[in-house]
């Protein structure tokens, strides 16, 4: 789950939660084309994205979003990943489901007890070139 902050035509901030997946160093997320945030992102693609996992991990970023199209080089992989995760294609969740790819220009992460957090998630060594 990610929190995505958009801006209205009156320059008023709006934040909402979206299903989001971190793929290839950035977020992909979806929403209905009828949602206000879809209109905001179409007109003003500058957004902020935050992912907070309890008090253990947080990622904060600012950047731009683009609506993914079938011609996008990551389209098939993204849909395949989401479908495997949810046991259904996100494109089947409604009549106008839109997939977005985020392009951050600033990103920072925080991890409390980083080594322990990574070990619990199956990552036991970073930067190691050996087995």
Short summary of the structure?
By secondary structure, this protein is an alpha+beta fold.
Give me some keywords for this one.
alpha+beta; Pnp Oxidase, Chain A; 3 helices
- The low-pLDDT segments are none
Largest sheet: 7 strands, antiparallel
CATH architecture label: Roll
How much of the sequence lies in strands comes to 35-45%
Number of helices: 3
CATH topology: Pnp Oxidase, Chain A
Characterise the protein shown here.
β1 and β2 form a beta hairpin. The protein has a seven-stranded antiparallel beta sheet, with helices on one face. It has a single domain (about 1-120), classed as Roll (Pnp Oxidase, Chain A). With about 130 residues, the chain is α+β, with helices and mostly antiparallel strands. About 20% of the residues lie in helices and about 45% in strands. The protein has helices spanning about 35-45, 75-85, 115-120; strands at about 1-5, 15-20, 20-25, 25-30, 45-55, 55-65, 95-110. The protein contains three helices and seven strands; from the N terminus they run ββββαββαβα.
């Amino acid at each position: 789950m990610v929190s995505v902050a958009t801006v209205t035509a009156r320059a008023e901030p709006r934040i909402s939660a979206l299903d989001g997946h971190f793929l290839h160093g950035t977020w992909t997320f979806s929403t209905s084309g009828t949602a206000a945030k879809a209109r905001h992102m179409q007109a003003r693609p500058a957004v902020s994205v935050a992912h907070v996992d309890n008090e253990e991990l947080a990622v904060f970023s600012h950047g731009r979003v683009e609506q993914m199209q079938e011609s996008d080089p990551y389209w098939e992989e993204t849909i395949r990943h989401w479908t495997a995760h949810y046991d259904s294609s996100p494109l089947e969740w409604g009549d106008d489901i839109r997939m977005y790819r985020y392009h951050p220009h600033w990103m920072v992460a925080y991890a409390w007890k980083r080594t322990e957090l990574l070990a619990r998630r199956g990552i036991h060594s970073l930067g190691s070139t050996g087995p």
